[in-house]
Amino acid sequence: MIITARLTFSAAHRLHNPNRDEAWNRKTYGKCDNPGGHGHNYGLEVSVRGTIDPDTGMVIDLKELKDVMRERVIDRVDHRNLNEDVDFLRGMVPTAENLARAFWQQLAPAIPHGQLYEVHLQETERNSVSYRGEDE
Amino acid sequence: MIITARLTFSAAHRLHNPNRDEAWNRKTYGKCDNPGGHGHNYGLEVSVRGTIDPDTGMVIDLKELKDVMRERVIDRVDHRNLNEDVDFLRGMVPTAENLARAFWQQLAPAIPHGQLYEVHLQETERNSVSYRGEDE
Amino acid sequence: MIITARLTFSAAHRLHNPNRDEAWNRKTYGKCDNPGGHGHNYGLEVSVRGTIDPDTGMVIDLKELKDVMRERVIDRVDHRNLNEDVDFLRGMVPTAENLARAFWQQLAPAIPHGQLYEVHLQETERNSVSYRGEDE
Amino acid sequence: MIITARLTFSAAHRLHNPNRDEAWNRKTYGKCDNPGGHGHNYGLEVSVRGTIDPDTGMVIDLKELKDVMRERVIDRVDHRNLNEDVDFLRGMVPTAENLARAFWQQLAPAIPHGQLYEVHLQETERNSVSYRGEDE
Amino acid sequence: MIITARLTFSAAHRLHNPNRDEAWNRKTYGKCDNPGGHGHNYGLEVSVRGTIDPDTGMVIDLKELKDVMRERVIDRVDHRNLNEDVDFLRGMVPTAENLARAFWQQLAPAIPHGQLYEVHLQETERNSVSYRGEDE
Amino acid sequence: MIITARLTFSAAHRLHNPNRDEAWNRKTYGKCDNPGGHGHNYGLEVSVRGTIDPDTGMVIDLKELKDVMRERVIDRVDHRNLNEDVDFLRGMVPTAENLARAFWQQLAPAIPHGQLYEVHLQETERNSVSYRGEDE
């Protein structure tokens, strides 16, 4: 049984690798490398896998899961600049892929071992990523 | 190949375990334990897995799948109180998790053996569960 | 200029006029008259009309508008039974039409005179109502 | 007859009035005043009003309307910082209200006189504005 | 008070005026003039305006409104070719504008005089039209 | 890590197997066998699986993935008749299942070996299929 909670946040970012030159960045990221940045309304879905507790009828208390999501991710990235303002994203190009993996790493320690199943991050109506801890 | 049909229904429910006391229920279910109940527009997605019939180009006739969904689930829960009105939910706390598993059990006998792949139940824009028959 | 805020709530209701007999109720409301009730995820959109304040660039502070919506409507109807639990809905059949007008009446005193423009209530993917104070 | 085209763009912005002090800005804009900015996926709907051309069956060629929207608005704001990068937004706090009015002013000269009916700007799932040229 | 019902249908169409030559059609309709046609999932929203009946709490019985929509429009256009199969669309280029007006004309006689308020037709995520009987 | 791009197209089709008689076709496909065809707005989601490139922070360049989708699928099926106009669909009943597999076969050669993970095709709000290359 997999249970999923969805929350949203709005943030600015710029896709830019400071270790590479301007030409490489422009070629790699195109308009996403705009120096003033751009931004998105992100949809964050976190899925937990487990068995149904026969007493509560629940796999996990969704209210507690959302509290974890808010405390460890949403409250630290909402209405922020993902390149500058977020400690756990320092030194990272804030692509959807890197964000999803970084969010997983923030969430995993607060969720019973082995239960975190997937972090799904919707960047626009047309782009999304799913991370299941594959290459940690 | 997986093929998915989506139907919706509207129902009332109350999260309350009558075998536990009020304090436990209030702590466990919070506002979802409101005695008068509350309700949702549920989205029910049923997925079937199979190979494409070369004659029809279909894995399953979606019209037949929806007829099964209507007869075995939708028509019995739509515009109902899930705590009181539905025979196959008796004695069960109607959490999204328990509903998804109960719907699977209603649907499975009417679908060719091994083809039912997933029951996905959307409770709100922010909560959903997926059940694949794992712990039957 | 019209500015709109959207919030959601989940509630149970039963369409039933206690002043009329069962036959009338069944004929008028059909399955919506189910004695145990049913429920919905409602989407509530409140629109305010005004001019842009040249200093703030805003018609109204959306955070304040949402606080009014939560205090006067959402917190009193969310996870409630609209027939039984809500003081300002007493004695009223909780149709979408009656709800929209009742919400307008709760909201209007807290919004500068003449600025409340529309209460839009989405009951399902297929049903909605809009009220602009026409027949008060 | 009203016909509406919808396009989207992603941009960063900060709500901040440089003519007022920090305390005023923080009180007025809250977390939207974050110095590093934040961002959104905006949905822009432009509506044109007219009669149906009996020859074409169209009020306006939607492809041409979208070309105007792209040339005059979308291509200048997409993947941009609305405080810094857009000439026609200079000196303006980029609230949804100010954006909608500024977009109207960009679009109106390219649409037959009197036909532009509404600019609707969706900032998040919860916030939107509509402008119909009222106070020009 | 305005109440709105939404139904969907899927149909094929080709934008082509047989009274004009190929060059005109290609220039006017572009890829929508493809001889084999193309198609859409249409969303049809019909809005009725009226006062709340104090007995029922309703402006109109939505079930009856949907029955009218199905009988007079949906059942005649769903899974049809709008250029060839629909009697009330004969001799008309099936643009969204012409469809909305034709649907209004089908619906109006079945709705109490003066109550039909708007026919809104969504052709794609990006295109829609609204008709309020303006130029009848 | 899985990354997904979504594009849309609008097309006409008819479900009809010319090797079977009318009775079989009518029984199998029902109203989808309408001789004049019908149509849909399709949503096409293509998912690619891979590891994050530490230099770019990306699994794949989404712009390149969308270019492949446009060149190999979207531009050949958008505003087309799927029974008549598309070379790679010749001789095939254009069910959602057959389309998803055919799109996979068009896309796979243009994506690094083993990385194409899923083709998801949404036909209506109620019908979708997912193909992961299972029975090639």
Summary, kept brief:
6 copies of one chain form a homohexamer. With 136 residues, the first copy, chain A, is α+β, with helices and mostly antiparallel strands.
Relevant terms:
homohexamer, about 140 residues, alpha+beta, Tetrahydropterin Synthase, Chain A, 5-stranded mixed β-sheet, 3 helices, about 30% strand, elongated
Which oligomeric form is depicted?
A: homohexamer
Q: Report mean pLDDT of chain A, rounded to a whole number.
A: 97
Class of chain A in CATH?
Alpha Beta
- What is the CATH T-level topology of chain A? Tetrahydropterin Synthase, Chain A
Largest interface: A-D, 23 and 23 residues
Given helix and strand content, the structural type of chain A is: alpha+beta
Order of strands side by side in the largest beta sheet of chain A?
A: 3-1-2-4-5
**Beginning-to-end CA distance, first to last residue of chain A:** 23 Å
Number of helices of chain A: 3
Overall geometry of chain A: elongated
CATH architecture of chain A: 2-Layer Sandwich
Percent in strands of chain A? 25-35%
| Unreliably modeled segments of chain A | none
Q: Number of domains in the coordinates of chain A? A: 1
Using the CA coordinates, give the radius of gyration of chain A: 16 Å
The ordered string of helix (H) and strand (E) elements of chain A is: EHEHEHEE
Helical coverage of chain A, percent range? 25-40%
Number of strands of chain A: 5
Largest sheet of chain A at a glance? 5 strands, mixed
In CATH, the homologous superfamily of chain A goes by the name: 6-pyruvoyl tetrahydropterin synthase/QueD
